[in-house]
Design goal:
heterodimer, A: about 425 residues, two-stranded antiparallel sheet, 4 strands, flat, B: about 350 residues, alpha/beta, globular
Chain lengths: ~425, ~350
């Protein structure tokens, strides 16, 4: 380091000083600070980019999982009363009156938000949507006592469940979506109860997503390891040619590859036709290889294979062949030489490839959507479903949040078991 | 969004310009493909010739997200949009569409007022005017099954008709069909489905064929599944099967028993730039002659009763009469059920969850 090479002497307090008399320690710190600042300056554009278009949007979207003020925003009169209400006792006339006032205001509001409010409450209790829109249409003509008037309009207003649904919806900051994302229900009285058994799905989907990701990771490792080994040991000329074969599908659109698998695997497809032709199966007992979990596993393994082969290949290229030769000349069998000498040196590649494939697999959705059928779909397909068709963005955000925590947890486990430093992309 | 803009109406349109909305250009948005083509031929071209206005035709994929974005940003560029019933009702509820004065709709040629000429119950949405009736039906390949299925119960009968079934991956229309197959009359389906026993019954019926089901999501899939021999029979949108038969000469047969029909409607987004011209187009395109004309391009039924008598033959095949291809043809309409939007708006969250959980098991 430049600072260290400078002329220096010792001052009267016995400290090392630079030529201009400042303590050497201080000069060193200054120089280090400058070089850190320069390094920081170089990464600042990328950092700002990531924070602005990645971190902040994710955080904003995550807040949707715990915060939804559709109800409170447009129903200002009934919201505080519902919050005070214990969720158990008979609803008061005051609450009925506030509800009628809110309905009238929401219908006359230029944005006509009554439909949005109705959609929000209906997520808590099926049927409240038409209850709200039909009552709101008549709200203007209602006269006190409002309790009677509303119950006359629709007798659902006498039911405590109706009001409980409103109470849950009126709470803007709520754990209800995260509870729903793990198959629990958040009730009006603030308790958590398990979701109705016929409607439980998300835990099972998270587990299936985990299972598919692990199986795909192991399958790509099993298939990719020998290929990477071959590539790294043959002469460069041939290796480059073979590498093109690995990369060619990598450069092809995922949709094209997935569709190709449909043509291959469907019951009237190439593979089944072939097995009928050679007499392996009868014409009426064709294999179901697609539109189920098998289809998802096969297609995903193929699509993610290059992500395993490439890191493995680049790590294997750096393993000197002389080590294995040395082991053998010292009397090791082929297996011992491989397992004790070669394999440990490729572990950083396995770690990199495995993590890459696993993280990609856990968020995969196009392929399972196309070939997954009923038991081959993953959690991301449901996040997509809530984003685009049910428009329940809060639940989508909560599911995404759970998935994120899940992945971070697995990453932490990986770091503990394998060590994140022990990973090499080349 | 697939955005395909076609400028229809030649320079002559500028020269004509005598009507009140002289040389207006309106943006008409629809679903593209054969369906938009049928509208261009039956609605756009005659209207351009009559008024001298021009039409920019855009495609979209349904849903209200784009209309919502335009209305909320105060920058509406679409004048009239073809939407499904569920979206029409939501657009109206959420104030995204202009209310339409139904008195602008012309009466039938015999003088019947529009309110009585449209099929009962289809003019109930105050912001939307219906154009076509489309239907979810089931179909099979007649070259594979000689003595084919006749009723919706046959679709669920694996003993009588073994083989895979194609079904849309959604509870909509499927629960209704399952109940009809289980012997519930069409007019009681939604009453039964409103009870939890009824929902159980529908799922139990679906359960009986679950092992043989191939699920589809896009409308183009079912004809493909049939053509590939992947399924013995499949539910589908009737226009898609008709198109495979008429344009590609596939030997497919439609079974109309237990069909679940629905509507497509015009809405005018709130704050549309050429509202008056759009209203004129809306009234013109939903008159008796125009609705009947569209039916010679695609097998979706006109929503006016007076149009049925005028429905001719397929545009490129004079001997293919379109009347019997319509969901609304009397012989097809015998056991038909209208999709109940209110029911689905109220129950879709719960039934979707239950359907998905049932699928995953």
């Amino acid at each position: 380091m430049a600072v260290m090479e400078m002329d220096h002497s010792v001052d009267n307090q016995g400290r090392l000083v630079a030529a201009d008399g400042t303590p050497l320690k201080q000069r060193l710190a200054q120089a280090l600070f400058m070089s850190r600042l320069r390094a920081f300056g170089l990464v600042t554009p990328l950092l700002l980019f990531i924070v602005c278009v990645f971190v902040i949007p994710i955080l904003i979207f995550m807040t949707r999982g715990v915060y939804n003020d559709t109800y409170a925003q447009y129903m200002p009169n009934s919201t505080p009363l519902l919050q005070q209400w214990d969720g158990d006792s008979e609803p008061t006339e005051e609450m009925y009156e506030a509800m009628v006032k809110d309905f009238i205001a929401a219908r006359e509001h230029p944005e006509r938000p009554i439909g949005r409010v109705a959609t929000r409450v209906n997520r808590e209790l099926s049927g409240t949507r038409s209850l709200i829109t039909s009552t709101a249409r008549r709200a203007k003509r209602m006269e006190p006592p409002f309790k009677e008037a509303m119950i006359n309009a629709r007798d659902d207003w006498a039911e405590i469940e109706t009001w409980q649904a409103f109470k849950v919806a009126s709470k803007s900051l709520t754990p209800a979506y995260y509870a729903a994302a793990v198959d629990w229900q958040y009730t009006a009285t603030g308790e958590f109860i398990p979701q109705d058994e016929l409607r439980q799905i998300y835990i099972r989907l998270f587990l299936r997503t985990l299972e598919i990701s692990i199986v795909v990771t192991l399958a790509t490792l099993l298939l990719g390891y020998p290929v990477a080994y071959l590539l790294s040991t043959i002469p460069n000329r041939i290796a480059n040619l073979l590498l093109i074969l690995v990369l060619l599908p990598f450069w092809t659109s995922i949709l094209v590859r997935t569709t190709a698998w449909i043509a291959m695997l469907q019951s009237q497809g190439v593979l089944n036709d072939l097995s009928v032709f050679i007499g392996l199966t009868g014409d009426d007992q064709r294999f179901s290889l697609i539109y189920n979990k098998t289809g998802t596993l096969i297609a995903m393994t193929h699509i993610l294979l290059p992500f395993m082969i490439l890191p493995l290949y680049s790590v294997m290229k750096t393993v000197p062949p002389s080590y294995v030769r040395a082991a053998k000349s010292l009397g090791a069998t082929n297996w011992t030489a491989f397992w004790r000498v070669y394999f440990p040196q490729t572990v950083p590649g396995i770690g990199a490839g495995g993590l890459l494939v696993f993280i990609l697999a856990i968020g995969y959705y196009i392929t399972p959507a196309l070939v997954g059928g009923q038991d081959g779909v993953m959690i991301s397909n449901f996040i997509d479903n809530h984003m685009r068709s049910t428009l329940n963005w809060s639940l989508a955000a909560a599911l995404g949040g759970v998935l994120l925590v899940f992945v971070l947890f697995l990453y932490w486990i990986y770091d503990k078991v394998v060590g994140i430093d022990n990973m090499k992309l080349g | 969004m697939k955005l395909k803009s076609i400028l229809i109406g030649a320079a002559s349109a500028v020269a004509v310009g005598s009507a009140a909305f002289a040389a207006d250009t309106i943006t008409v948005v629809s679903w593209g493909g054969a369906y938009t083509k049928s509208q261009v031929e039956a609605y756009h071209k005659p209207w351009i010739a009559k008024t001298g206005n021009q039409i920019v035709s855009e495609d979209y994929n349904g849903g209200l997200s784009e209309i919502k974005a335009q209305v909320e940003a105060g920058n509406v560029t679409w004048d009239i949009v073809d939407v499904e019933l569920s979206d029409a009702v939501r657009a109206c509820d959420e104030g995204l569409a202009e209310e339409i004065d139904m008195s602008i709709l012309p009466p039938a040629p015999d003088g019947t007022p529009a309110a009585k000429d449209f099929i009962a119950g289809t003019l109930d949405v105050p912001c939307a005017v219906p154009t076509i009736v489309w239907s979810t039906i089931f179909a099979y390949d007649s070259s594979e099954i000689a003595d084919g299925p006749k009723t919706i119960a046959d679709f669920f009968d694996l003993e009588k008709f073994p083989g895979k079934r194609g079904i849309r991956k959604s509870p909509k229309a499927n629960l209704e069909m399952a109940l009809m197959a289980d012997g519930v009359p069409a007019d009681e389906v939604y009453d039964v489905l409103s009870t939890s026993e009824g929902v159980d019954r529908a799922f139990a019926k679906l359960d009986s064929i679950k092992s043989e089901v191939v699920w589809w999501e896009a409308g183009a899939q079912p004809p493909q599944l049939l053509a590939d021999g992947e399924v013995a029979m499949t539910t589908a949108y009737n226009g898609r099967i008709f198109n495979a038969v008429a344009a590609e000469d596939k030997p497919f047969n439609i079974v109309w028993d237990g069909q679940v029909w629905d509507l497509d409607l015009w809405i005018i987004p709130k704050g549309a730039p050429n509202k008056e011209a759009a209203k004129d187009f809306l009234a013109f395109s939903t008159d008796t002659e125009r609705l009947a004309g569209q039916a010679s391009w695609i097998s979706y039924g006109p929503t006016r009763k007076s149009s049925s008598a005028l429905v001719g033959s397929y545009h490129s095949k004079p001997d293919l009469a379109m009347g019997p291809q319509m969901p609304t043809a009397p012989e097809n309409f015998a056991n038909a059920l209208q999709n109940n939007f209110e029911f689905w708006a109220d129950n879709q969250d719960e039934l979707n969850e239950r359907f998905n959980a049932w699928l995953a098991n």
